[in-house]
Amino acid sequence: MKIKFADDRLTKFIFKDMIYMKISFSHSQRKQMIFMTPSIQQALRLIHPGMIVSLGGGRHMQALADALAQTPIPGIQLTSPSELTLAYCQQRNLPLAAVPTRIDMAFDGCDSADTNLNLLKSNGGIHT
């Protein structure tokens, strides 16, 4: 699957972070969080007040939920195809969209990526 973004700088940044996240799996949990931080900060910059945001599953989405709990953005609502992610967001008192009629931004990780930005997903079983 090829994904193209309107802003080439965003593509390069996200691709670089995907590689960092992939490499980080061979390091300790502490080092993994260090590698995750730039992509979480970039994701926060893309979320604007009033958006409905979908989060995928896994540790990276939990880290993004934690960041949203620490840095509230007015009027956002969250949704997810993952029951675990929804429960995690609810535990952090993040606003959930009951039945979203639109999704303004969606975030998820990938299991691997090549230099052509072909992404492989769903070792974990959810497709966003």
TrEMBL record:
Keywords, ordered alphabetically: Isomerase
GO biological process, one term: pentose-phosphate shunt, non-oxidative branch
A single MF term (Gene Ontology): ribose-5-phosphate isomerase activity
Enzyme Commission no: 5.3.1.6
Top-level lineage group: Bacteria
Entry-linked Pfam families: Rib_5-P_isom_A
Keyword Repeat assigned: no
UniProt KW Isomerase keyword: yes
Name the record gives this protein: ribose-5-phosphate isomerase
Species for this entry: Schleiferilactobacillus harbinensis DSM 16991
